[in-house]
């Protein structure tokens, strides 16, 4: 029996709703300092909830295969290494177009899904290469910009980098905030920075990377999330992937609950992207279940949820092959780039 259908990244999304309330896409609102300052996070309670999350539910057989297909559709297939080359980016784009081997697609009976990843994420230097490689597919190219990964170059240079990435064809921009604004409680400065980046992006989807591994406390993570959302970020994202600690379930739980409360207060939906350190199919199920439990069905769409990952796709492909054949393939049978 083939798995339950999982959409491709480019089908019409379901209506944006939370608790039955129809939501609008996020847009900038005035900075409300009370919202930032009143944030409190019970760290021990968050950590307990995250620890029990992975034990609370399991999905097996056809259901697991369907969830893994959904994980592929919500994946930003990424290469952000110092030794990246144009050829590596081209190979990555080929994998983005056909994330599963043809025989596996046929065995699963999912040819009609035309499954692709959610986007390909690269450095600015390789945006044009990726755009050409993905021409005609509808797969977005996301560029990391704004002084990635440290975010410490002058603001004007970071804004100009965003502009150049868009001119090169990027249809999504992943910006990185100045972490010092969070440490110093400079919420107006953080708001103005994110707003300037969003002004430059215009209608282009912008993901605000908080660098949560650098922010020290979950309260800082929650406050930075609120300010970035008020400044107009379309997504909030955990990490650059370059910090010592990247996406974790406690951090993700803190961020998605900020998204939920923001939606309840404003009627607007913000997306979420965990990135860095998510490498296995099992982890993808953990994060998908978190989104379903905390935010509901609407946040299982690529328009509101993405994984920042690369190696995870190979493990998902191995798990799907096991679902079909009952045997695990060697890792080298499922290369990424």
Overview of the molecule:
It contains 13 helices and 12 strands. It has helices at about 35, 45-55, 60-75, 85-95, 100-110, 125-135, 155-165, 180-185, 185-200, 220-230, 250-265, 280-295, 310-325; strands spanning about 15-20, 20, 25, 75-80, 120-125, 140-145, 170-175, 205-210, 235, 270, 270-275, 305-310. The radius of gyration is 19 Å and the shape is globular. It has one domain: TIM Barrel (Alpha-Beta Barrel).
What brief labels describe this structure?
TIM Barrel, disordered N terminus, 13 helices, eight-stranded parallel beta sheet, 337 residues, two-stranded antiparallel ribbon
Short précis:
It is built from 13 helices and twelve strands.
Going by CATH, the homologous superfamily would be Aldolase class I
CATH fold-type name:
TIM Barrel
Distance between the termini: 31 Å
- What's the helix-strand series? EEEHHHEHHEHEHEHHEHEHEEHEH
* Share in helix: 40-55%
Radius of gyration: 19 Å
Strand ordering within the main sheet: 11-9-8-7-6-5-4-12
What is the makeup of the main sheet?
A: 8 strands, parallel
Strand coverage percent: 5-15%
What is the 3D form? globular
């Amino acid at each position: 029996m083939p798995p339950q259908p999982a959409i491709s990244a480019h089908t019409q999304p379901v209506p944006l709703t939370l608790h039955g309330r129809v939501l609008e896409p996020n847009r900038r609102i005035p900075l409300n300092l009370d919202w930032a300052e009143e944030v409190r996070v019970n760290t021990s309670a968050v950590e307990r909830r995250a620890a029990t999350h992975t034990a609370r539910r399991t999905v097996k057989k056809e259901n697991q295969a369907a969830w893994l297909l959904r994980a592929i559709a919500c994946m930003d297939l990424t290469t952000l290494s110092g030794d990246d080359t144009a050829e590596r980016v081209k190979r990555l784009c080929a994998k983005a177009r056909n994330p599963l081997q043809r025989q596996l697609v046929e065995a699963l009976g999912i040819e009609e899904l035309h499954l692709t990843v959610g986007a390909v994420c690269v450095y600015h230097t390789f945006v044009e290469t990726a755009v050409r490689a993905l021409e005609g597919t509808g797969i977005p190219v996301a560029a990391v910009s704004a002084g990635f990964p440290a975010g410490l170059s002058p603001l004007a240079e970071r804004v100009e980098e965003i502009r150049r990435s868009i001119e090169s064809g990027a249809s999504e921009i992943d910006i990185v905030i100045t972490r010092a604004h969070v440490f110093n409680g400079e919420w107006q400065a953080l708001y103005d920075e994110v707003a300037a980046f969003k002004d430059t992006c215009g209608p282009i989807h912008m993901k605000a990377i908080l660098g949560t591994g650098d922010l020290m406390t979950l309260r800082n993570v929650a406050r930075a999330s609120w300010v970035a959302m008020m400044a107009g970020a379309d997504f909030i994202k955990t990490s650059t992937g370059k910090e010592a600690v990247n996406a974790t379930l406690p951090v993700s739980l803190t961020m998605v609950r900020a998204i939920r409360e923001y939606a309840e207060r404003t009627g607007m939906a913000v997306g979420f992207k965990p990135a860095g350190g998510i490498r296995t199919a099992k982890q993808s199920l953990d994060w998908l279940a978190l989104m379903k439990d905390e935010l509901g069905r609407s946040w299982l769409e690529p328009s509101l949820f993405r994984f920042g990952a690369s190696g995870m796709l190979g493990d998902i492909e191995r798990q799907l092959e096991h679902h079909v054949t009952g045997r695990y393939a060697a890792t080298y049978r499922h290369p990424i780039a």
